[in-house]
């Protein structure tokens, strides 16, 4: 293997290159390793090193080429495999990276660093059996280091070998008597967690008694103790422990639930509506006692309202709302949101009516200011109590505005919020809510105006500042939104850059705005930034894993596993993933000509943006770090849309979702949509099977299924599979199957629209299909608000036939009279008013200038006369 031996001179150069790589001086290292390869072009390690240097410098294709070459020339060496592992890590292919490090460690069994890296990859890929094997090797090689003992204990824990994990912890504790107090506490609690997870609750409970003096967080100790007593069936002692905890914090829901269960009032999975009368009375009495004991607890009062009905509910509601109104608690409506959940049980749904009648009654009496005519003495007393506070009426107006907004009665909601503002025009919460109300009603421009008004009332409030920025962007004013958001952004080297701080909600909002304007390059750039943010959160496991083992935070490491297993189910990631997939799908459908047109537009924009950036970078005051932050290799997003196959890029995101969020139906809906477009029918079958396991009646799935069958049934290779699927779903005819779906879900708007779309796909009666889409009276909907559902229907109708869309708009313009989608004349009138205002302003300015000239002329005349 002479090709892998270097002369003394070349070896010095190679060592210098690796040293520069460690110092992150990649370009200098690359220049050095090139000198080695000039003399020794087949040297395996040098080719591999060149590969990872090119990777760090952003040349991924060339990097892969040299990594593969290094591997081919030195397949029995460790470094080429390590370099290929680094390459796979960089592209987030952790499973392959793990395999590479496994081969590297096999080729160099004395290199402890390789085993440590391998263990981290095994931890991240959840190969816990491999992790245990590697941790055992590391411990044997270096038994004096505590993190190796901790790693070995954790590996046993994750593979279910609890006894071995406990033994490892105990053995290390015996050999090291100089543990810090915090580390001893962590290890002791981890020891207890291990006993609990092994299933031996009795032993865990006994161990908890032994470690009482070690644990400084006595609340945590009591929580664990109460939980163990419950699991062991010792309800009396559990009740005592939860009572002690409740004395510390009567607004902690877990303590109250624990007390309910320990007293035998309610099972953990039981609903209040399922209780018989006797058990319900016992539960009500229990909460009455708690309320008397802890009168300041909002949570206990809320729970009382949830379990009371009729006149009893009204009395308790009055007792709850009167002090809140008198004190002026802005969150009082939020505290009662659980009462507004839709329910088919009459005694539950009637609570909203009672709330409305009660608050309106209080409002009427306070407005009239005549209390002597009130017959009910209790009511009279409460009204007089409210009258003592001048602001009571304000908070009643505010509550009613929120109440009617929740019921989607926008005219009444606007009436009451306007009364509230008229009463106290300086209260920020009112403008905040009015902005949200306009958003709910469908007017993003007015929403942003009121949020900006709210922001100006308190310029030091970061939350309101962010809300104002968000609403500007939702009104597609990205520049104003970004400038507003940057007010509170820390300036990195005097450069406010919210992308630098991984603000995912912001990148999503900006991306969604660009998507609405069909500016796909910029939108894709934003959504990709969100996806990168979450990949970074996932990658942080590398550093956090080492840190936790080094400092003995094993319980935190277990929490990290649970967190990162669910990190890709976060709503912000979904917005970014969904948006990016939609853009890739649209690029595929619109074809190459459309893409070329986008690229041309990007090039024009990029030229202007580059001139601006170069001007900034030429500032002599900027150092290298400042220039690095300002630098952007893809200013317009052009590189993101220059891809050959957009759907392949969409699949990369779908693969993340399939791996990290397999229980979410939307994962498989997106997959089915993309795989159908790609005609990857095997993958389609997998997605359909997953959807059937989760929800076979999903309205999006229904349309996607029909689209798939229409595309696949003519493919001879899979005709048997398609027929088997039809048999499984009992599809004799697609039209008949669609009608059955419509009949089954005839009361839900989204399902009716899906069935109507299928009718159009099948070439059936267009008039009938449109009629089904356009009806909403007496129907339910799956969206949070009816206006959102109807707006979606309108946008679908626009794509089908603009005439029908206009008819739909006319049909419901009065129902949604604040919506700019259903009443576009609102914007026209508003623009006319703006123009008129600007004209008057200009006229006034001209008159002012004219008057000034006349005054100056008059002065000159007087001067001449003198």
UniProtKB/TrEMBL annotation:
The keyword Repeat applies. Residues 833-866 are annotated as: Disordered. SMART domains: TPR (SM00028). The keyword Repeat applies. It comes from the Eukaryota. Pfam families: NatA_aux_su, TPR_16, TPR_3. One of its GO terms (cellular component) is cytoplasm. InterPro entries: NatA_aux_su, TPR-3, TPR-like_helical_dom_sf, TPR_rpt. Keywords: Repeat, TPR repeat. PANTHER family: N(ALPHA)-ACETYLTRANSFERASE 15_16, ISOFORM A, N-TERMINAL ACETYLTRANSFERASE-RELATED. This is N(Alpha)-acetyltransferase 15/16 isoform a. It comes from Anaeramoeba flamelloides. The lineage of its organism: Eukaryota, Metamonada, Anaeramoebidae, Anaeramoeba.
């Amino acid at each position: 293997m002479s090709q892998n031996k270097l002369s003394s001179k070349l070896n010095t150069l190679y060592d210098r290159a690796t040293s520069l790589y460690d110092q992150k001086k990649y370009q200098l290292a690359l220049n050095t390793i090139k000198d080695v390869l000039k003399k020794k072009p087949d040297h395996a390690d040098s080719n591999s090193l060149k590969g990872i240097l090119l990777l760090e410098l952003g040349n991924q294709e060339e990097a892969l080429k040299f990594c593969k070459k290094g591997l081919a020339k030195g397949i029995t060496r460790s470094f080429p495999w390590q370099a290929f592992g680094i390459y796979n890590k960089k592209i987030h292919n952790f499973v392959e990276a793990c395999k590479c490090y496994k081969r590297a460690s096999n080729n160099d069994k004395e290199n402890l660093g390789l085993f440590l890296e391998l263990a981290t990859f095994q931890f991240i890929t959840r190969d816990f059996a491999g992790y245990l094997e590697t941790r055992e090797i590391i411990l044997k090689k270096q038994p004096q280091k505590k993190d190796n003992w901790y790693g070995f204990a954790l590996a046993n824990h994750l593979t279910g070998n609890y006894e071995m994990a406990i033994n490892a912890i105990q053995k290390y504790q015996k050999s090291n008597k100089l543990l810090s107090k915090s580390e001893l506490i962590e290890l002791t609690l981890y020891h207890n967690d291990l006993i609990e997870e092994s299933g031996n609750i009795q032993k865990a409970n006994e161990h908890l008694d032994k470690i009482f003096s070690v644990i400084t967080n006595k609340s945590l100790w009591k929580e664990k103790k109460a939980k163990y007593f419950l699991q062991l069936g010792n309800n009396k002692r559990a009740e005592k422990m939860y009572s002690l905890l409740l004395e510390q914090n009567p607004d902690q829901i877990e303590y109250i639930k624990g007390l309910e269960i320990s007293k035998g009032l309610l099972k953990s999975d039981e609903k209040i509506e399922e209780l018989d009368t006797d058990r319900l009375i016992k539960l009500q009495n229990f909460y009455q006692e708690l309320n008397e004991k802890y009168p300041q607890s909002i949570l206990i009062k809320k729970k009382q309202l949830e379990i009371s009905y009729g006149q009893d509910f009204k009395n308790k509601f009055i007792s709850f709302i009167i002090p809140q109104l008198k004190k002026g608690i802005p969150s009082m409506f939020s505290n009662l949101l659980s009462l507004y959940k839709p329910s088919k049980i009459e005694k539950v749904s009637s609570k909203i009516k009672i709330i409305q009648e009660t608050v309106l009654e209080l409002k009427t009496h306070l407005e009239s200011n005549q209390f002597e005519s009130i017959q009910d003495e209790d009511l009279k007393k409460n009204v007089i109590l409210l009258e003592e506070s001048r602001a009571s009426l304000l908070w009643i107006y505010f509550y009613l505005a929120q109440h009617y907004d929740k019921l989607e009665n926008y005219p009444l909601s606007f009436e009451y919020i306007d009364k509230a503002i008229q009463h106290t025009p300086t209260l920020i919460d009112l403008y905040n809510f009015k902005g949200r109300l306009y958003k709910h009603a469908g007017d993003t421009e007015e929403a942003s105006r009121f949020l900006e008004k709210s922001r100006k009332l308190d310029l030091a409030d970061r939350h309101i500042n962010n809300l104002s920025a968000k609403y500007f962007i939702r009104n597609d004013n990205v520049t104003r939104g970004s400038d507003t958001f940057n007010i509170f952004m820390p300036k990195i080297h005097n450069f406010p850059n919210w992308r630098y701080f991984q603000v995912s909600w912001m990148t999503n909002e900006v991306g969604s705005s660009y998507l609405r304007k069909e500016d796909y390059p910029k939108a894709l750039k934003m959504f990709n930034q969100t996806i990168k943010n979450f990949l970074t959160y996932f990658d942080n496991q590398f550093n956090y894993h080492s840190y936790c083992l080094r400092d003995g935070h094993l319980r935190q490491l277990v929490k990290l596993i649970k967190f990162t297993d669910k990190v890709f189910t976060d709503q912000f990631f979904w917005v970014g993933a969904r948006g990016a997939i939609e853009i890739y799908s649209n690029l595929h459908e619109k074809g190459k000509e459309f893409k070329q047109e986008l690229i041309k537009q990007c090039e024009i924009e990029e030229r202007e943006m580059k001139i601006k950036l170069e001007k900034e970078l030429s500032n002599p005051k900027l150092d290298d770090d400042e220039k690095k932050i300002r630098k952007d290799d893809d200013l317009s997003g052009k590189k993101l849309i220059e891809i050959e196959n957009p759907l392949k890029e969409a699949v990369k995101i779908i693969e993340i979702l399939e791996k990290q969020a397999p229980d979410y139906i939307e994962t498989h809906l997106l997959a089915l949509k993309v795989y159908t477009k790609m005609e990857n029918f095997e993958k389609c079958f997998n997605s359909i099977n997953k959807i059937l396991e989760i929800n076979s009646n999903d309205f999006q799935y229904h349309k996607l299924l029909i689209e798939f069958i229409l595309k696949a049934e003519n493919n001879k290779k899979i005709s048997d599979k398609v027929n088997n699927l039809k048999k499984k779903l009992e599809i004799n005819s697609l039209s008949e199957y669609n009608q059955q779906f419509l009949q089954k879900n005839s009361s839900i708007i989204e399902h009716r629209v899906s069935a109507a779309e299928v009718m159009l796909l099948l070439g059936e009666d267009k008039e009938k299909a449109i009629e089904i889409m356009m009806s909403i009276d007496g129907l339910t909907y799956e969206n949070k608000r009816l206006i959102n559902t109807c707006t979606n229907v309108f946008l679908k109708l626009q794509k089908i036939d603009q005439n029908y869309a206009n008819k739909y708009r006319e049909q419901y313009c009065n129902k949604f009279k604040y919506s700019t989608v259903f009443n576009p004349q609102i914007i026209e009138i508003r623009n006319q008013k703006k123009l008129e205002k600007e004209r008057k302003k200009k006229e006034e300015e001209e008159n002012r200038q004219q008057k000034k000239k006349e005054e100056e002329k008059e002065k000159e005349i007087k001067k001449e006369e003198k």
